[in-house]
Amino acid sequence: MVTATRRIAMSDLSRQKRLEAEVGTDGLSDRHTVGQAVEHYLDAMRIRQNGLRWTAFSRGVKLDSKTELSDIPEADREWTVMPEVSAGGR
Amino acid sequence: MEIELDQTFAYLHEVRREPDLTGMPLYSAAADGDVAELVEEASLWGVLAGRLPAAPDALQVQITPHWVREPIIGSLEITLAARRRGKTMRFVQRFPHGRWFREAQRQLQLLRDQKTVGPEETVYSMLLALACDRSSTLRLAPFPTPCIAARSLAACGVRTLGAGRLLADRPVLVNQTLIEDTLRKCCEADTRETGGAVLGQMIRLDQALPGTTTRIVTVLSASVDDHRHAGDTMRFTFDPAALAAAAQIAELRGLGETVQTVYHTHGWKNACGNCNQNPRCPLAEADPSLQDYQLIESLFPSKSTLLPIAGRKLGAPGRSPVLRIHAWRGGRLQAIPWQAYSD
Ligand SMILES: [Zn+2]
């Protein structure tokens, strides 16, 4: 079976922390999920998870963390990764 | 890029009852990650200041502790030597602060809550460097080339420069409309917090602006509010879907902007109005809180990130809130000067 090489780019909102991963080689396979890919990005970029809920967005739409990478359409290969987080005076 | 790290110490952060190493620590944890963050901050500081190349072929990192008395560190000196096309540029910065300072505040609060430490009792936070063999290494984050486009101010919509002044090695320009919007929102929300996304970009000019020493300028051009973000007294929660929508807006504007950061407010009491003069005003000043650090480090993990906060500032003139913009400097977010512009 021949699998096309696929690239996923993950970055923060400002695009200053950016990781491009080749699915099948860079520690990610087609069977990995969106959630696992996000974990991979956070670890590779040394971003502390801080116990927050992290999600990936593509073209403004949230990706289901349980979706396998093989089921991600070609047009959804540029992700923005971010957590739900609060600011405050305290 | 090839990175060479001269690493002869392992770092430890401790909170203790005495200002020395007698007795058992109240808290002790490895702090190699804290020090690795300073290397990243130094590197971006150097790049944005025009003192280091953005995409070097090789980077040499040297970390030198300056002792209070060994092994207690007073500050860390980080020397970066970046080689590009056979030419080496060197950048040195001293870091008196780091994440361990924030961790100490958090730990002190926990220790007080647990009644291990009395409400009036003093504790001491210290960073220790312990000699180790050279095989143990810090896990440095990758050094991605910062996203900086060669672009003119006019192409970013900057027509005329207004009030304020620029920091020589980190010039930041802020759209007058953004300033007015955030200050108005701060007043409208009264003692509740509010906030939104901030669009902008980092650009490389042909020439440094007068009074500055770098061609790299950060332009904060617009704020995008969204009802999905939720504000309260002393708290503001950003909704990821709303921020993703702001990123879409940035793309549609077609100016090369991204969501550079988020702003939020620390409240303003309209019924009082004396918030800048009254030292007993219960509202937090427009300084980053521990929670703000967690917010900005999670949403915008790059050390190039700016943090704008609107609110009261003791000693600021007048009966209206101020907008303060913070940048990573010396291991913490510090308010920096900036200049307004009109589009
Ligand atoms: Zn805050």
Describe this structure as you would to a colleague.
The complex is a heterodimer of chains A (90) and B (343). In chain A, strands 2-1-5-3-4 form a 5-stranded mixed β-sheet, with helices on one face. The longest helix of chain A is centred in the middle third of the chain and has 11 residues, at 34-44. Chain A is 12% helix and 31% strand. In chain A, a hairpin with a 2-residue loop joins strand 3 (54-58) and strand 4 (61-62). Chain A has 90 residues and is mainly beta. Chain A is globular, with a radius of gyration of 13 Å. In chain B, the strands form 3 sheets. In chain B, strands 8, 9, 10, 11, 12, 15, 16, 17, 18 and 19 form a 10-stranded mixed β-sheet that branches. In chain B, strands 1, 2, 3, 4, 5, 6 and 7 form a 7-stranded mixed β-sheet that branches. A two-stranded antiparallel sheet of chain B has the order 13-14. Chain B is globular, with a radius of gyration of 21 Å. The two termini of chain B are 39 Å apart. The mean pLDDT of chain B is 95. Chain B has helices spanning 32-48, 99-113, 176-189, 240-253, 290-299, and strands at 2-6, 9-16, 27-30, 58-69, 72-84, 87-95, 124-131, 149-150, 160-164, 172-175, 195-204, 216-224, 230-232, 235-238, 258-265, 306-311, 322-329, 332-336, 339-342. Chain B has 5 helices and 19 strands. The A-B interface holds A 12-19, 44-48, 50, 52, 55, 57, 59-62, 80, 82-90 and B 33, 36, 139-142, 144, 146-147, 193, 195, 197, 234-241, 243-245, 247-248, 258-262, 264, 266-267, 283-284, 289-292, 294-295, 297-302, 304-305, 311. Strand 6 (85-87) of chain A pairs antiparallel with strand 14 of chain B, so a sheet runs across the interface. Zinc ion (ZN) sits between chains B (264, 266, 289, 292, 309) and A (87-89). Zinc ion sits between chains B (264, 266, 289, 292, 309) and A (87-89).
